[in-house]
């Protein structure tokens, strides 16, 4: 057994043990370790027993939460948040779609994934009770991202891919996941962390470099647009600090951007005949046009998960199709590359509408941080909440360039943002009571 495998086992089971002996959130850390390390996809993982590492961590964390409840230690009520209720309704709609889904087997994949996400929401909202828990959760993600950076340091085969966790194996997926994480983790730089802040700065630079290695145009544009939006939500009393860090970030961005990315962006330009040079970029527009036709078949209720993939031979021109292998046979297919169109074709106006309500609720949390007085609430929580909400905005922007419907990090944000909002409300009530 390799040293890496031994370290993984020690850390993973150590966290699960601490979930019982100290706080259940350690079980959540074990889950994140399984997500980022993803042993079944690593060479060192072949020496480990074939276990469902994420499932086991989730199950043990649920047990730890139940035992914690019996000690009268209360966390957030799982069903008290609007975002959770809306996701439950969305899940019920997914179950209803079995009645007309194009392919029940493919639809089942997403139904099971959505059920897993419901459990994850319960875990996150049950485990995270304090500001230190929120910081710990973000820090655990930063550590996981650094592991990706370590794996990508020796990658020499073009765009960085194949090292990500579940659902983010592709270069676009990895780049988008890290871009979202980069946004909300950066706001910890405004929090009192002592000397750990210097380690965070180094970690952010490594994460940014890894994003550049993926060559994901969507991830880079999402970072830039989110950066522009962040100028309207500068933490009160931190304007000089914010401008200084933003300037350093811009310098690091310009230094790390490589010729591979510049070439990919140049490929988005039109040639003398008005055609986009990069076929990958040009295909995005063709796929969207075809998806509009698919959407019109069942605009309200959709046609189930992976509709674009299933109907692509009918609607998408052959020259834009890709060869995929399934059951040992090569077939021509093309999947969605846009979150909005993917939701519309898969789940119709109802599905996209439900998710839009979740996004709207999170947007309200973002605008709420501008109204709250830092002197009346926990100012550090206010800063962290700003970063989390902007991270979700980054997710939405990135989805315009690549379908990120199944990205797990979006579920983490949907779960944690209302919890932090509740903490802010409670801190304001405590402040009023003291005054």
Précis, in short:
By secondary structure, the protein is mainly α.
Describe the 3D structure.
- There is one protein chain.
- With 435 residues, this protein is mainly alpha-helical.
- Helix content is 67%, strand content 2%.
- The chain is built from 16 helices and 2 strands.
- A two-stranded antiparallel ribbon has the order 1-2.
- The longest helix has 33 residues, at 339-371.
- The N and C termini lie far apart (60 Å).
Write the layout of secondary structure elements.
Layout: H1 3-21, H2 25-37, H3 53-69, H4 82-96, H5 104-127, H6 131-152, H7 171-186, H8 196-214, H9 217-230, H10 239-256, H11 259-266, H12 279-297, H13 307-315, E1 322-326, E2 329-333, H14 339-371, H15 379-398, H16 408-434
Antiparallel strand pairs: 1-2
């Amino acid at each position: 057994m390799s040293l890496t495998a031994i370290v993984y086992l020690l850390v993973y089971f150590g966290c699960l043990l601490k979930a019982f002996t100290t706080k259940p959130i350690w079980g959540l850390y074990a889950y994140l370790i399984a997500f980022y390390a993803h042993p079944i996809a690593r060479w060192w993982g072949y020496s480990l027993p074939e276990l469902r590492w994420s499932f086991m961590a989730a199950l043990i964390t649920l047990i730890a939460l139940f035992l914690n409840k019996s000690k009268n230690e209360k966390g957030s009520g799982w069903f008290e948040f609007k975002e959770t209720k809306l996701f439950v309704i969305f899940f019920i709609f997914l179950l209803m779609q079995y009645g007309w889904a194009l392919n029940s087997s493919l639809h089942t994949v997403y139904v099971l994934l959505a059920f897993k996400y419901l459990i994850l929401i319960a875990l996150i909202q049950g485990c995270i009770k304090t500001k230190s828990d929120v910081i710990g959760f973000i820090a655990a993600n930063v550590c996981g991202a650094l592991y990706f950076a370590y794996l990508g340091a020796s990658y020499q085969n073009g765009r960085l891919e194949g090292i990500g966790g579940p659902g983010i194996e592709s270069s676009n997926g990895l780049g988008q996941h890290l871009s979202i994480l980069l946004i909300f983790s950066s706001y910890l730089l405004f929090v009192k962390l002592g000397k750990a802040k210097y380690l965070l700065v180094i970690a952010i630079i490594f994460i940014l470099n890894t994003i550049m290695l993926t060559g994901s145009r969507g991830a880079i544009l999402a970072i830039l647009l989110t950066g522009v939006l962040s100028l309207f939500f500068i933490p009160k009393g931190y304007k000089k600090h914010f401008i200084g860090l933003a300037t350093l970030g811009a310098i690091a961005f310009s230094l790390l951007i490589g010729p591979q990315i510049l070439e990919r962006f140049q490929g988005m330009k039109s040639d003398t005949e008005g055609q986009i040079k990069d076929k990958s970029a040009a295909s995005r527009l063709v796929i969207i046009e075809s998806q509009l036709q698919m959407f019109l078949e069942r605009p309200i209720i959709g046609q189930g998960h992976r509709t674009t993939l299933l109907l692509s031979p009918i609607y998408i021109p052959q020259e834009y199709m890709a060869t995929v292998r399934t059951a040992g046979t090569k077939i021509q297919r093309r999947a969605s590359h846009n979150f909005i169109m993917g939701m519309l074709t898969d789940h119709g106006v109802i599905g996209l509408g439900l998710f839009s309500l979740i996004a709207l609720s999170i947007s309200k949390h973002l605008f709420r941080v501008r109204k709250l007085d830092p002197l009346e609430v926990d100012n550090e929580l206010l800063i962290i909440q700003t970063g989390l909400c902007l991270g979700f905005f980054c997710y939405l922007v990135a989805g315009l360039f690549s379908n990120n419907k199944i990205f797990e990090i979006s579920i983490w944000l949907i779960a944690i943002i209302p919890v932090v909002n509740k903490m802010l409300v409670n801190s304001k009530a405590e402040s009023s009571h003291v005054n």
